[in-house]
Amino acid sequence: MAAPREPVTVTITGAGGQIGYALLFRIASGEILGHDTPVRLRLLEIPQGLHAAEGTALELLDSAFPLLRSVEVTDVPSSAFDGTNVALLLGARPRSAGMERADLLEANAAIFAPQGEAINEHAASDVRVLVVGNPANTNALIAASHAPDVPTERFTAMTRLDHNRAIAQLALKIEVPVTAIDGVIVWGNHSATQYPDVSHATVDGRPVSELVDAEWLDEVFVPRVARRGAQIIEVRGASSAASAASAAIDHVYDWVNGTSEHWTSAGVTTGGTNADAATAYGVPEGLVCSLPVKSVGGEWVVATGLEISADARAHIDASVAELAEERDAVRALGLL
To answer: Has 190 been annotated as catalytic?
Structure first.
C-alpha cells in the first residue's frame, strides 16, 4: 500500500469573492492537484471580506471532504503564504468609472507588490503562483518583481479562460465535442487585444481552416473570444466567476501533472528559461505574456518552432505592445 501523500498548502487571495466561492470546493475535492493529494487551505482576505471568507470556511468544513486537512482564514499575508506550495491570487482592484489606467495599475501594485514580498519571504521553495485578478499579466509581473528569490517562471497569469472560450466557440461552430479540438493558442495580454489563434488547431486531426471560413474567424470568432468577459458582465450583471474558477483549476492541474505532447495557453514570464523561445516569437524579455506552453516536469515550457502568419504577427505585436505599455507605466510609477 502506497504511503499517504503529504498535504499541499494552497493559498487563495480574495477568497471571499465569487471566484473564490466557485473555486474552493473544487480544490477541497481534489480537482486541482489530484484525488490522492490532501490539501490545507489558506484564505486571505481584506478585513471587509473576512466574514464572507469565514462563512465559506464553515461550509468547507461542513462538506467533510476526505482530502481537506484544514482551513485557515486571515487578513495577514505573511500568515496566508507561510509554507504555501500553490498560490492563486484572485483579489484585485477592479477598474471603476472614470479611473485612469495609471491609477488602476498603481492600485493593483499596492496589492500585488506586498503579496510578492510575502511569497518571497514565507512560501515554500517549490511555490507556484497563478494570478487571476486583472490586469492579470501585469499584476503577475509586479508580484514576481517583488519576489527576487523565487524563480520568475513560478509566476504565471491566467489566460486559460480565454483558451477555453476559444475551444468552446470552435466546438459550437463545428458541432463537435470540445475534446475533438487541439492546438488552439491565445497570444498576448488577457485583454481585448489578445489573439486567439487557430492556425495550428485541428479537429480530430483535420485543420480548423478546412472546417470554418476565414471571414467567420476574423469577424466573429476573434472578437467574440476577446470580448467574452464584457458580454458576460452585460448579460449576467457580474463578471465571470465559475468559468474563471474552472480555468484556474485547469491551469494548475496541468502545471502540476503535465500536458504530455499537447500545448495550452498561459501567461508566462518571458525571461529565464523561456527567454529564447519568447524572443523567437517576437516577445521581448521582461513581460508576462500568453504563449503556447507545455507542462514538462512541473514547469511551463514554451512550445517552439511554430510558424506565425503575417496576420497573426500583427495581432501578436499589438497585444505585446500593450503589455509593454503597462509594464512601462508601472515602472514609471516606481513600482517595478
So the answer is: yes
Q: Can 8-157 and 160-332 be said to share one CATH topology?
A: no
Contact 154, 129 (CB under 8 A): yes
Q: For the whole prediction, is pTM greater than 0.90? A: yes
pLDDT of residue 103: 81
Name the one residue in this structure whose C-alpha cell is 492541474. Answer: 253
Of 44, 227, 51, 58, the closest CA to residue 133 belongs to: 44
pLDDT at 332 exceeding the cut of 90: no
**Residue 53 to residue 73: CA distance in whole angstroms:** 7
Contacts with 258 (C-beta within 8 Å, 6 or more apart), sequence order? 295, 296, 297, 298
- The Cα–Cα gap between 25 and 2 comes to 26
Tell me the sheet residues that pair with 202: 182, 207
Looking at residue 49, the DSSP 8-state letter turns out to be G
Q: Quick one: pLDDT band at residue 98, thresholds 50, 70, 90?
A: low
SS3 (DSSP) at 147: coil
Catalytic residue among 35, 122, 163, 190: 190
Tell me which DSSP letter residue 153 carries: G
Question: By C-alpha distance, which of 156, 144, 199, 148 is closest to 310?
Answer: 199
Task: Please compute, for residue 262, the number of CA atoms within 13 A of its CA located in the half-sphere on the CB side.
Answer: 16
Q: Above 90 in pLDDT, residue 91?
A: no
Architecture of domain 160-332: Alpha-Beta Complex (3.90)
Report domain extents, the chain.
Answer: 8-157, 160-332
Q: Is 31 exposed, middle or buried (0-12, 13-18, 19+ CB in 10 A)?
A: middle
Residue written as cell 492537484?
33
Q: Please give the mean pLDDT across all residues of the chain.
A: 93
pLDDT given for residue 1 in this prediction: 41
Reduce the DSSP state of residue 38 to 3 states and report it.
coil
Give yes or no for a contact between 247 and 161, defined as CB atoms under 8 angstroms apart. Answer: yes
Distance between terminal CA atoms of the chain?
50
What's domain 8-157's superfamily in CATH?
Answer: NAD(P)-binding Rossmann-like Domain (3.40.50.720)
